[in-house]
Amino acid sequence: MHPFSYTRVSDTREAVAAGRRGGRFIAGGTTLVDLMRETVEQPETLVDISSLPLREVTATERGGLRIGALVTMAEAAAHRKVRTLYPLVCEALELSASAQLRNMATIGGNIMQRTRCTYFRDVRADCNKREPGSGCAAREGFNRTHAILGTSDSCVATHASDVAVAFAALEARVHMLGPDGERTVAFADFLLRPGSTPNREQTVQPGELITAVEIPAFPRPLHSGYLKVRDRQSYEFALTSAAVALHVRGGVIREAKVAAGGVGTVPWKLPAVEQHLIGERPSEALWAAAAAKAVDGARPLSHNRFKVELLKRTVERQLRIVGGTK
Ligand code: SF4
Fold first, then answer.
1. Domains in the chain, start-ordered, CATH in brackets?
2. Nearest residue CA, atom 3 of ligand 1?
3. Tens digits of per-residue pLDDT, 150-183?
């Protein structure tokens, strides 16, 4: 591990100032410390933000929820309001990582986490995300777990977060505080597709601090759930996943929010699936036809062609479970 300095802040303005001077924020440290040990990340200054007052879950005036950036994954998953209003978020959290990691990792850190591409974490491998312009070892390497959607010639890594898939489905917003004040970004714009600059992963500017993730209100009842398909049933990343939320009234689907994980370079919102569902009556045929649209634009690699069919089946199965025709 490379030498670094460490400072602790207790005020958000102080944090922003330290971030602007080049400090890296650290809270739970469940990603960053690993990457520092592997010398993938070599920050000169760590700014410990774990004492900042960003640990609240509060109802918004518009009927949604605002989850503070330093609420841990375990706290968010157990929170009464989150469980009542957005069980989809709780399911995604509880299927993530391990209990120990969920006790340490924060919501803000979770959506900032870096890819689990093994080549990214191997400093001997070519990786445009770690070292721009060096190449992408995964393209011609073992890419079974990599993305089939949103890829570029520069990078094919997936985004590893589960709860980010739920946030994408529910059209959450990310609140940030920076040198120029507060701003809010739609979750769909917060994480960046790799394009030709895979080293840029979020819209966060130097010194900007995530303060909260806000989930909007939806018509009730909102039936929802998260399905994660993986190689083993514990402490494993998704091969595919589906976050589904449906509002059905009078036997007709009025709202449909759907996103997929494990397949995209960012959590993959599925507007074509949503549009196919809205205004229709739940049926087996509807789930299958809608799920077929989940793979529009898929570009599988040499070892992950199976994800195309698996994604269709994952989305179809979760639509059936949430839609109540199973
Ligand atoms: Fe690096 Fe992305 Fe290629 Fe993985 S897929 S080796 S993260 S450039």
1. 57-112+160-215 (3.30.465.10), 223-323 (3.30.390.50)
2. 136
3. 999 999 999 999 999 999 999 999 999 999 999 9
